[in-house]
Design brief:
Elements lengths: L1 H24 L3 E16 L2 E19 L5 E8 L12 E4 L1 E2 H4 L10 E13 L5 E15 L5 E5 L11 E5 L4 H9 L6
């Protein structure tokens, strides 16, 4: 009886330690390489006729964890925004389930992930020495969990101090395709 109790106690301790290790360190993580180039459409909500055609590149590794939020480690480049095209270090973007941040309908639950796109900008003086560092913010990224549809709510401040809702959708070549992609992340207030 004592041997059975000791064995059960040891197995329970091993199970507890395994659970805590997996929960805290996110093991196992399942990587998936992402190398995508999409045609994209950018437009402002108050003037949808002013469509800008651009290209969206996503390169990196997408990690899914057992008990943690997934992450994307790589680069997201938008040809329309020069600061995203600079040779920069690979960034790690935590991806959060859309319905944990926004009220969402049941059909989008757990299928849309969101993050914020920031880019490090290093400035150097005339001698080549480091002189300044800042993060430039592109906007909020929305993706489906297979990276088949991408929406970026672009942060655009205009000279008059207003912030107009600007969207980028991919893959899209027309305004209608872009608006169809934007529907998959509509906020249900």
């Amino acid at each position: 009886m004592r041997v059975v109790f000791k064995t059960m106690l040891v197995l329970a301790i091993i199970a507890f330690i395994s659970y805590v290790t997996i929960r805290d360190f996110g093991l196992p993580r399942v990587p998936r390489e992402i190398h995508l180039t999409y045609p994209a459409v950018q437009y402002t909500a108050d003037d949808p006729a002013a469509v800008i055609h651009t290209t969206l590149e996503i390169e990196g590794t997408y990690y899914r964890y057992l008990f943690h939020h997934p992450t994307f480690k790589g680069v997201v480049r938008v040809h329309e925004h020069d600061f995203t095209m600079l040779e920069s270090e690979i960034m790690e973007y935590p991806l959060y389930a859309y319905d944990r941040i926004y009220k969402a309908s049941p059909d989008v639950r757990d299928s849309i992930l969101t993050s914020f796109l920031s880019y490090p900008i290093w400035e150097h003086n005339s001698r080549g020495d480091f002189s300044n560092f800042q993060f430039k913010y592109l906007g909020e990224l929305f993706i489906d969990n297979r990276f088949e549809q991408v929406k970026i709510h672009v942060n655009r401040e205009f000279g008059d101090g207003t912030d107009r809702a600007t969207y980028l959708a991919a893959p899209a070549t027309t305004l209608e395709e872009a608006q169809q992609i934007l529907k998959f992340t509509e906020i249900f207030e």
